[in-house]
Amino acid sequence: MNSILICEGSTDFVLLQYFMRGVFEWEDDMMGPGFLRPSRKFKKGNNHLTIGGVGGCSKIIPNLEKIIESNSLSASDTEYYEKIVIVTDRDDVETENNFMQKIEEILLRHQVLMSQEFTGNEWNSGTLKNARNEQMPLKILVLVIPFEETGALETFLLKAIGKQSEYDKNIILKGNDFVDTVDPDKRYLTSRRYITKAKFDVYFSIRTPSAFFVERQNILKGIEWEKYMEIQKCFEKLGEL
């Protein structure tokens, strides 16, 4: 069975690869498809998984449509993605509602028949007609992180760390205060996304100072994320891939 997981950016891409390897025992296979950059393929037994970053939330919907179109044109099981996972941030309720509506519009446009009302953070089952005019099974999971509040994946990760260590929580809070006040004229931290990433980087510049000037990916790979219960809970549905 083929599955595909698409996410927004580099933080998500690196963390999800690490998690699928370390927790769910997927093995590296090869580079992923050309329409996703960056991307990587994994294997576990007869199952195959592609993980790809799309370069921002606005690019998730167009890439989802490419995947659905590819499925509808597929003539063999090896070209068909039976399970599709989308991992995105919970920026605000209105954005999330619009996002889910756009997914439903894609499914309707490509005549995907869902067996239930489409919902986030749950597997949604349906069928899609392929190039051989066969109704193929399709399951879609949209993980909106964090589940219960607005914020980015970086914010969620810092909170998960803070819940397991009061000492680290204090470092995170002080770092957040610093970032919130250090650039009052917004000359450098010009968007909420930049502020979120700065808070994440400030914490890790303290936790791993020798690695601060190393690429963010290497810092992320060095953390045993599977030990954090909040993160295990968040990604537990990925065990069904």
Order of helices and strands: EHEEEHEHEEEHHHHH
CATH topology of the largest domain: Rossmann fold
Give the mean pLDDT: 84
Uncertain parts: none
Lay out the secondary structure.
Layout: E1 2-7, H1 10-22, E2 27-31, E3 39-44, E4 47-53, H2 60-73, E5 81-89, H3 93-109, E6 113-114, E7 123-129, E8 135-145, H4 153-164, H5 166-182, H6 192-207, H7 216-221, H8 229-235
Parallel strand pairs: 1-4, 1-5, 5-8
Antiparallel strand pairs: 2-3, 3-4, 6-7, 7-8
Helix pairs in contact: 2-3, 4-5, 5-6
Organism: Eisenbergiella tayi
Protein name: DUF4276 family protein
In short:
The chain is built from eight helices and eight strands; from the N terminus they run E-H-E-E-E-H-E-H-E-E-E-H-H-H-H-H.
What would the keywords be for this entry?
241 residues; alpha/beta; Rossmann fold; 2 domains; eight-stranded mixed sheet; 42% helix; 22% strand
